[in-house]
Amino acid sequence: MTIADLCLLAAVVLTLASVMPAKMDGRREYDNANPRDPRFYSPGLRARALGAHMNGFEAFPFFAAAVILAEMRAVPQGTVNTLAVAYVLARVLYVVFYVTDRPTFRSLIWMVAFFCNLAIFFSPAWAMR
């Protein structure tokens, strides 16, 4: 198992954990029998945590496909690992900036993560040279 493979797991765990601030904030109001009640995720911290959570699900498929493609095409593993770690670290910052209501930094770090993902995706083209 490679570091990039472990980064896939880390991205999933981060996505699942990113909604925890909402649940911690409203632990007395959270109804596990109705976990998707939109009223629980009212504006503010809860809405931002839910937004980070949902964005994680949106971003993950491209990340997973890029890592798998790069590894299948025999890109040097160090390159894939480095870019995957950079992606996950950027996503951690993205969640922090999202939950703490820093939209400009959130958008900038989203772009960093996206460019890391693009680099992983296109790395087989560079590796063939």
Radius of gyration: 16 Å
Major sheet description: none
- How many domain units? 1
CATH class: Mainly Alpha
Uncertain stretches of 5 or more adjacent residues: none
Tell me the layout of helices and strands.
Elements: H1 3-17, H2 20-25, H3 45-72, H4 77-99, H5 103-127
Helix pairs in contact: 1-3, 1-4, 3-4, 3-5, 4-5
Describe the 3D structure.
This protein has one domain: Four Helix Bundle (Hemerythrin (Met), subunit A) (Up-down Bundle), CATH 1.20.120.550. The longest helix has 28 residues, at 45-72. 75% of the residues lie in helices and 0% in strands. The chain has 129 residues and is mainly α. The chain contains 5 helices and no strands. Helix 3 runs antiparallel to helix 4 (77-99), helix 3 (45-72) packs parallel to helix 5 and helix 4 (77-99) packs antiparallel against helix 5.
Summary tags:
129 residues; mainly alpha; Four Helix Bundle (Hemerythrin (Met), subunit A); 5 helices; 0% strand; elongated
Q: Could you write a compact summary of the structure shown?
A:
With 129 residues, this protein is an all-alpha fold. The chain is 75% helix and 0% strand.
